Amino acid sequence: MHGRIVIVALLLFINLFLLFRLIWSDQGVFAYLELKSRYELLQGRIEAVDRRSLDLSQEIRRLKSDPTYQEKVIRERMNFVKRDEILYIFPDDTANQPGDAVHEQEN
Q: What's the pTM value of the predicted model, to 2 decimals?
């Protein structure tokens, strides 16, 4: 009878130890869920980088082969103009101009 109690206690201790390892250890359920979350995040980043790479490759091909696209890009990004054209460049940041609600609240 005494031997059975020792065996049951030992088996109970082993089960508790294994349960602890299953849930809270470095190789447990919580660690697995965290790794799975990080994996999905990194997969999303990889897919975004792949899409960006494809977009850039297509743009490079167009810049090499399409003179109309080359002219469009040069005009937009470098503010080039043709002869007898006038270019007006407006600032992007219009916040805190006199009369703005933000500006009036600060005073």
A: 0.52
